[in-house]
Amino acid sequence: MEIPRIPLGDWIETGLSWLTTEYSAVTRGISRITQTGIDGLNDALMWLPDWALLLIIAGLCWKMASPRLAIGAVLGLGLIWNLDLWDPMIETLTLVVIATLVAVVIALPVGIAAALSDRLYRLIMPVLDFMQTMPAFVYLIPAIPFFGIGSVSAIFATVIFSMPPAIRFTTLGIRQVPVELIEAADAYGATRGQKLVKVQLPLSLPTVMAGINQTIMLALSMVVIAAMIGADGLGSEVWRAIQRLRPGDGFEAGIAVVILAMLLDRLTQSLRKERKQ
Which residues cross the membrane (predicted)? Predict the structure, then answer.
């Protein structure tokens, strides 16, 4: 007896076709708004002279982290400039910043709601497991029919891919607040909103910042992969080097990605340490 094959792929294709047809006006509007944001931030960063932006980043590293990180930022960004990868680095930074902002804006309310509702928590955890175990390349597939080839599709795929850690850590941080403090707030007559704003969120902020840090790192990795669907930046340099069999150019772009990742990681970690203090 032969068991018939479940046409799961056909169902998914039918669903995507229906969504792209029925909500094409919505996706076009989202695409225009997102592209405007990408162009605006990218133009603003490009407008600054290279040396000025380098000094601004070094100053942020000095103030928020340490003089050692500031010196490392000058050396690392100076190397990127010397390799003629400054403009691709700016394009990558633009995509990471916008994708991270969108992901955090969505993730924080969802994480808070999941922390306060056991039913939502049980519902959303399997969804997050599914999102985090799905191969990154798969997220590029639905982005193309919705938004076409380019940076907007990269933002869409990056947001979906990088959002789960922010939701998980937000939920974890709020749920780890000591019960005694919650009971003390109740004893003083605090409302549910007051407990959230004045007790749970401040105490969970270091954990939330750890989730945002992971979101930034995942966004950077996905933006590089999204070069396969037309995203600009350092990922496109790596993809071009692969296509042309030029390993040297690929390693140069990869080193630039590592430098950018280290700077973003150290800066967000310094924010987390400040919150702990």
Answer: 51-81, 93-116, 136-161, 208-231
